[in-house]
Amino acid sequence: MSYLLVVLAGMSVALQQVLNADLRTALSSPWWAGLISYLGGTLVFLAILVGSGRPWPTSSSLADTSWVSWTGGLFGATFIGISAVMVPRLGAATTLALVVAGQMLGSLIFDHVGLMSVPQHAVTPLRLIGVACVVGGVVLVRS
What we know:
The protein is an all-alpha fold. The protein has two domains: 90 residues, no CATH class; 53 residues, no CATH class. The relative contact order is 0.10. The model has no long low-confidence stretch (mean pLDDT 91).
């Protein structure tokens, strides 16, 4: 069931990028499309948080976070903006195949060095073959 949920999450990313590209075309701006996408997501998370009744973060827990942890939105905005521009140019499958290839390469590096709270997993020949298969998939999808 966990794998299915992750596959569905991946499908939602593909749909999100198609919707953002459509919005970008309608508004003539990837930045407006990204802002609207983030605003929608923010409202959903706010509703979930309010509805869950879970406590809000304390000032000490917020102060204990690394400043780097607060930069995730910058990378999300980069992803949304670039995808909104590239989906109409390359197509959804090619754009997202390239995104997945980038995610695999980045994840392999982050695992290898144990970046922040990511458990360390060394790069092995088998893991490199797996990334090569993903990159090969990009080539096949692009054709």
